[in-house]
Amino acid sequence: MALNAVSRSLHDVGLAAWFGGTLANAVALNAAAGHAGDARSAGAVSNAGWDRWTPVNAAAIGAHLAGSVAQLGANRDRLKAQQGVATMSLVKTGVTVAALAATGYSRVLGRKVSQAGAVPLADGTTPTSETPTEVATAQKQLTALQWAVPALTGALVVISALAGEQQRPKEVLAGLTQRFSH
């Protein structure tokens, strides 16, 4: 039982940090960088914030994935026997892969912006007419991705709530009954 509590905690705390941190950065950091005083400082502020967040985000994602794998192992019998659990697990895995891909690609683009140094930017995801083309292209893609990552990780929070509901005794019984009545 204690091991299950640890894996659930890793899963939930990791996902909470991944979701909350990326949402906060999209809502606050990227926009706040535009108030840095001048266009070159905007890039430096945004880059500094995202560069500081990256190792924390990586740890959060690692914790979430470790907890997810452990939870999958702990629930393997339910996965096989209870109607709906396998489908939920497949959907959750697909959304997790999409969130990982969006996060990874965001980091690749963010690194391009960060490595360009103190180039002129309107804010964390908006170029100016003086922003170098490669950086402006990366920023335009980051504009969408800054919302895609919290949307996908938010969807994981919802799917995780569904998974928790599937573990209620009444739901387990109903799922087993459905599975074996077919």
The main sheet comes to: 2 strands, antiparallel
Mean pLDDT: 89
**Rg result:** 20 Å
**Helicity, in percent?**
over 70%
Order of helices and strands: HHHHEEHH
Q: What's the number of domains?
A: 1
Total beta-strand segments: 2
The proportion of residues in beta strands is under 5%
Quick description:
The chain is an all-alpha fold and 182 residues long. The chain is built from 6 helices and 2 strands; from the N terminus they run H-H-H-H-E-E-H-H. Strands 1-2 form a two-stranded antiparallel ribbon.
Overview of this protein structure:
This protein has 182 residues and is mostly helical. It has one domain (2-181). 83% of the residues lie in helices and 3% in strands. It is built from six helices and two strands. The chain has helices at 2-32, 39-74, 76-81, 85-115, 133-166, 169-181, and strands at 121-123, 126-127. A two-stranded antiparallel ribbon has the order 1-2. A hairpin with a 2-residue loop joins strand 1 (121-123) and strand 2. Helix 1 runs antiparallel to helix 2 (39-74). The two termini are 32 Å apart. This is DUF4235 domain-containing protein.
